[in-house]
Amino acid sequence: MPRGNSLSNAEITRRIEQARDLLDEVLVLTRNGRREGAPSTASAAKVQVKHGAIDFSMPIRAFVKKYGTNMSGPKKFTLMVAYLTKGDATKRITLAEIERYWNKMTAKGLLGMKFNRFYASQAKENDWANTEKTGAYHLRPAWKEIFQ
Questions:
Q1: CB within 8 A of 117, min separation 6: which ones?
Q2: What's the structural domain count of the chain?
Q3: Cα–Cα 20 to 30 A to 97, which of 7, 46, 132, 135?
Q4: Confidence grade of residue 44 (pLDDT, cut at 50, 70, 90)
Q5: Is the residue at 39 inside a domain?
Protein backbone atom coordinates (compact mmCIF):
# COMPACT_ATOMS: atom_id res chain seq x y z
CA MET A 1 0.00 0.00 0.00
CA PRO A 2 1.53 3.37 -1.03
CA ARG A 3 2.33 5.81 1.78
CA GLY A 4 0.87 9.31 1.74
CA ASN A 5 -1.18 8.81 -1.42
CA SER A 6 -4.79 9.65 -0.73
CA LEU A 7 -5.72 9.92 -4.43
CA SER A 8 -6.93 6.91 -6.34
CA ASN A 9 -5.21 5.85 -9.56
CA ALA A 10 -8.27 6.96 -11.54
CA GLU A 11 -8.10 10.44 -10.01
CA ILE A 12 -4.37 10.71 -10.68
CA THR A 13 -4.91 9.62 -14.28
CA ARG A 14 -7.73 12.16 -14.70
CA ARG A 15 -5.53 14.97 -13.37
CA ILE A 16 -2.61 13.99 -15.61
CA GLU A 17 -4.96 14.02 -18.63
CA GLN A 18 -6.22 17.48 -17.63
CA ALA A 19 -2.64 18.72 -17.38
CA ARG A 20 -1.83 17.17 -20.77
CA ASP A 21 -4.88 18.89 -22.33
CA LEU A 22 -3.73 22.25 -20.95
CA LEU A 23 -0.18 21.70 -22.22
CA ASP A 24 -1.53 20.73 -25.66
CA GLU A 25 -3.49 23.99 -25.77
CA VAL A 26 -0.39 26.00 -24.82
CA LEU A 27 1.65 24.24 -27.50
CA VAL A 28 -0.98 25.00 -30.14
CA LEU A 29 -1.05 28.65 -29.09
CA THR A 30 2.73 28.97 -29.19
CA ARG A 31 2.99 27.23 -32.57
CA ASN A 32 0.46 29.66 -33.99
CA GLY A 33 2.29 32.58 -32.41
CA ARG A 34 -0.94 33.78 -30.80
CA ARG A 35 -1.51 35.19 -27.36
CA GLU A 36 -4.60 34.53 -25.26
CA GLY A 37 -7.23 37.03 -26.34
CA ALA A 38 -5.64 37.74 -29.72
CA PRO A 39 -8.14 37.88 -32.57
CA SER A 40 -8.77 34.54 -34.20
CA THR A 41 -8.16 33.99 -37.89
CA ALA A 42 -10.51 30.98 -37.95
CA SER A 43 -13.61 31.26 -40.07
CA ALA A 44 -16.86 32.23 -38.35
CA ALA A 45 -18.43 28.89 -39.37
CA LYS A 46 -16.11 26.91 -37.07
CA VAL A 47 -17.25 26.35 -33.51
CA GLN A 48 -14.70 27.62 -31.02
CA VAL A 49 -14.42 25.17 -28.15
CA LYS A 50 -12.47 26.11 -25.06
CA HIS A 51 -11.06 23.57 -22.61
CA GLY A 52 -13.95 21.83 -20.84
CA ALA A 53 -16.61 23.87 -22.67
CA ILE A 54 -18.15 20.97 -24.58
CA ASP A 55 -21.74 20.30 -23.48
CA PHE A 56 -22.23 16.53 -23.41
CA SER A 57 -25.64 16.89 -21.77
CA MET A 58 -27.22 17.91 -25.09
CA PRO A 59 -29.24 15.39 -27.10
CA ILE A 60 -27.04 13.65 -29.67
CA ARG A 61 -28.62 15.28 -32.74
CA ALA A 62 -28.24 18.79 -31.29
CA PHE A 63 -24.67 17.98 -30.23
CA VAL A 64 -23.71 16.82 -33.73
CA LYS A 65 -25.42 19.81 -35.35
CA LYS A 66 -23.67 22.28 -33.04
CA TYR A 67 -20.15 20.84 -33.02
CA GLY A 68 -19.96 18.79 -36.24
CA THR A 69 -20.51 21.55 -38.79
CA ASN A 70 -17.87 21.66 -41.55
CA MET A 71 -15.95 18.63 -40.21
CA SER A 72 -14.43 15.83 -42.25
CA GLY A 73 -15.49 12.20 -41.79
CA PRO A 74 -12.65 11.26 -39.39
CA LYS A 75 -13.36 14.34 -37.27
CA LYS A 76 -17.06 13.47 -37.18
CA PHE A 77 -16.14 9.92 -36.16
CA THR A 78 -14.07 11.30 -33.28
CA LEU A 79 -16.92 13.63 -32.34
CA MET A 80 -19.29 10.65 -32.15
CA VAL A 81 -16.84 8.72 -29.96
CA ALA A 82 -16.51 11.79 -27.74
CA TYR A 83 -20.27 12.15 -27.35
CA LEU A 84 -20.92 8.47 -26.71
CA THR A 85 -18.16 8.34 -24.07
CA LYS A 86 -19.03 11.83 -22.74
CA GLY A 87 -15.40 12.84 -23.33
CA ASP A 88 -14.02 10.19 -20.97
CA ALA A 89 -10.85 8.66 -22.41
CA THR A 90 -11.20 5.58 -20.19
CA LYS A 91 -14.58 4.54 -21.60
CA ARG A 92 -14.80 2.27 -24.64
CA ILE A 93 -17.48 2.28 -27.32
CA THR A 94 -18.02 -0.39 -29.95
CA LEU A 95 -17.73 0.35 -33.64
CA ALA A 96 -21.19 -1.18 -34.16
CA GLU A 97 -22.73 1.29 -31.72
CA ILE A 98 -20.97 4.25 -33.35
CA GLU A 99 -22.19 3.09 -36.75
CA ARG A 100 -25.75 2.63 -35.45
CA TYR A 101 -25.96 6.20 -34.11
CA TRP A 102 -24.17 7.60 -37.17
CA ASN A 103 -26.59 6.06 -39.68
CA LYS A 104 -29.53 7.65 -37.84
CA MET A 105 -28.08 11.09 -38.64
CA THR A 106 -27.26 11.14 -42.34
CA ALA A 107 -29.27 14.31 -43.02
CA LYS A 108 -27.27 17.17 -44.54
CA GLY A 109 -27.71 19.34 -41.45
CA LEU A 110 -26.20 16.63 -39.25
CA LEU A 111 -23.48 14.21 -40.38
CA GLY A 112 -24.47 14.41 -44.04
CA MET A 113 -23.03 11.05 -45.10
CA LYS A 114 -23.26 7.34 -44.47
CA PHE A 115 -20.77 5.74 -42.11
CA ASN A 116 -17.49 4.57 -43.63
CA ARG A 117 -15.01 2.47 -41.64
CA PHE A 118 -12.21 4.44 -43.27
CA TYR A 119 -13.08 7.29 -40.85
CA ALA A 120 -12.05 5.14 -37.89
CA SER A 121 -8.64 4.36 -39.37
CA GLN A 122 -8.05 8.03 -40.22
CA ALA A 123 -9.00 9.05 -36.66
CA LYS A 124 -6.43 6.52 -35.40
CA GLU A 125 -3.76 7.89 -37.75
CA ASN A 126 -4.40 11.41 -36.43
CA ASP A 127 -4.21 10.15 -32.82
CA TRP A 128 -7.76 11.30 -32.01
CA ALA A 129 -9.12 7.84 -31.20
CA ASN A 130 -7.61 4.40 -30.74
CA THR A 131 -8.52 0.78 -30.26
CA GLU A 132 -6.62 -1.90 -28.37
CA LYS A 133 -9.32 -4.47 -28.89
CA THR A 134 -10.90 -4.91 -32.29
CA GLY A 135 -14.05 -2.84 -32.58
CA ALA A 136 -13.84 -0.98 -29.22
CA TYR A 137 -12.72 2.65 -29.54
CA HIS A 138 -11.68 5.23 -26.98
CA LEU A 139 -10.52 8.84 -27.13
CA ARG A 140 -6.88 9.88 -27.14
CA PRO A 141 -5.69 13.02 -25.31
CA ALA A 142 -5.28 14.92 -28.60
CA TRP A 143 -8.91 14.38 -29.65
CA LYS A 144 -9.87 18.05 -29.12
CA GLU A 145 -7.71 18.93 -32.15
CA ILE A 146 -10.80 18.17 -34.25
CA PHE A 147 -12.13 21.63 -33.34
CA GLN A 148 -9.13 23.49 -34.77
A1: 95
A2: 1
A3: 46
A4: very low
A5: no
pTM: 0.65
The secondary element (H helix, E strand) that includes residue 139 is: strand 136-139
Inside any domain, residue 51? yes
Examine residue 93 and state whether it is found in any structural domain, yes or no: yes
Q: How do residues 56-90 score in pLDDT, each as one tens digit?
A: 899 999 999 998 888 899 999 999 999 999 988 88
pLDDT of 10 over the 80 cut:
no
Task: State the residue range of the domain holding 130.
Answer: 45-147
Residue 123 contacts residue 138 (beta carbons within 8 Å): no
**C-beta neighbour count of 97 within 10 angstroms:** 15
Contact 83, 135 (CB under 8 A): no
